[in-house]
Amino acid sequence: MEEIIIDIGSGNIKAYSINTVKEIKNIYLKNIMFKKNFSKEIGIAEEDKKELINAIKEIKNRNIGIPIHAYATSVFRMLSKEKLEELQIEIIQATEIKINVISQQEEEKYMSRAVGNICEIDEPYLVCCVGGSSTEMIVMQNGKIIEQLTEEFATGDMLKKFPQIAEDKPNINIEDMYKYIKENFKKLPKTKCRYAIFTGFHLMYNTVAENKMNKNTFFERKDIPYYLTVEQFNKNNEEAINKRSLNSLKEKYPENPSFMNGTRGANTIVGYILEKVGAEIYFPTNLNMINGIVEQLQEEELIKKLWDYMKSNQKIEKSDCIIGLGCEDLNIAKIAVDLYFKEYGDKIIFSGGLGKVTRNIWNEPEANKFAEYAIENGVPKEKIYIENKSTNTGDNFRFTKELIKQERLNVKTCIVVCKPYVEKRVEATLKKIIPECKGIVTSQNIEFEQYCNQYENEIGNRNEVIEDLVGSVERMKVFAERGWQIQMDIPNTVWQAYEDLVKMGYDKYYTKKT
């Protein structure tokens, strides 16, 4: 189903159509410098508010019957709660569309997602957006954010200080502009970056201005087709300020000629940032927050394919014992205890030492931790057996098999409790190492997003869940090839989703790295 997303920044309004295959097309652009007339007492100026409402109406009238979502950033975050509610109500009454204000953290997350992991660059690179009221700077490496800053200084500030830059041919000294930026632009990344990717409408501007751009030979991305050296960029900016007619650019961009008013100020800030981070290569793009939102939707679809595949969905039956596989997720112990009291098994084996995650958060083995919980919640101590040396799934079952033999336990059937997204790998490992035991694999009945929220509240970052899920899918193939578990079919769509997520940077547990 097609959707329309409206992106309201501090200097413009953009609208995009998103089709069923998540392709993005810019369908509207209007320049309104909200920050220029903004004040904390009044909020968004009345004239700007009218222009905003009219713009939303125009977008709506052009796209009748298509769902529309509106997001605001930057200066809109500076509104008081009362002023924001007043604005939202007024816009809803006029357009029937609610504006959702995106937090700074969310905007930075979407911006980094828009660019994503550029595998060909194995050193830090800068992702930057010079907006109307603020400048976002993110330093990335191998798909991970290593620095992120926001400077409350941007295009609107330059237009306020130097209104003549919006004239056709201004009489202004570029050194004065640099001096003003240096006095007010205080936050800069500590990491030096040879490569700098600028989001927004940089590619559009350079195309309209007919600036010579070089074909991108550093990496292959359809949405980042060109680059300029910093020397080329600086020369172009000096010509734009001292020689080039702004009116001629406006004529070449009839869709929204006033957008060009802020380009001289924005590009001078860009030049300052490029110098300070030690950049040599400047990549102009039209990428923005919306690309990041769509990228997240695509990522969620890929993750769901892996999540659903890794679930075994087996029916629980009464068994000789319950085996709880140790990890950082205490819910496994809770489920094992619940199954015990529901008489699905008359004894519990907890298996696990200190693994890749728990060795950093606990001082005692996973099995001991789980056993303590079980005893505290009423399971008799003599009904609990502990194996606390294993550090991986294979050893969980090898050492559990030894324990069963040593304790002379009669175990021909078992229920194995594990994390939701490793069910299939646990099943394949159990059948390889203890084939004589009929096993049923189960876990917490929960969807991916809920599990991530729970994990963040109780344990750590949701990215750890995604990393572990991706690594588990790879091990389904690699470990079967090594003879450590039985072979199980992996559909092509699942393997493609796995490969796409690795390209996105989820390769922490990628076996080829270890």
Concise structural overview:
The protein is an alpha/beta fold and 514 residues long.
Q: Which tags fit this structure?
A:
alpha/beta, 17 helices, 17 strands, 42% helix, 7-stranded mixed beta sheet, 5-stranded mixed beta sheet, 514 residues, 17% strand
Topology:
Blueprint: E1 3-8, E2 12-18, E3 24-31, H1 46-62, E4 68-72, H2 81-95, E5 99-101, H3 104-115, E6 125-130, E7 135-141, E8 144-151, H4 155-161, H5 174-184, E9 195-198, H6 202-208, E10 214-215, E11 226-229, H7 230-242, H8 246-252, H9 263-276, E12 281-284, H10 289-310, E13 321-325, H11 331-341, E14 348-351, H12 366-376, E15 384-387, H13 393-406, E16 413-418, H14 423-433, E17 438-443, H15 448-458, H16 462-481, H17 492-503
Parallel strand pairs: 1-4, 4-5, 6-9, 9-12, 13-14, 13-16, 14-15, 16-17
Antiparallel strand pairs: 1-2, 2-3, 6-7, 7-8, 10-11, 11-12
Helix pairs in contact: 1-2, 3-10, 4-9, 5-9, 7-9, 10-16, 10-17, 11-12, 13-14
Word description of this protein:
This protein is an alpha/beta fold and 514 residues long. The protein contains 17 helices and 17 strands. The protein has a seven-stranded mixed β-sheet with strand order 8-7-6-9-12-11-10, with helices on both faces. A hairpin with a 4-residue loop joins strand 6 and strand 7 (135-141). Helix 3 crosses helix 10 and helix 5 packs across helix 9 (263-276). The longest helix is centred in the middle third of the chain and has 22 residues, at 289-310. The two termini are 42 Å apart. The relative contact order is 0.09.
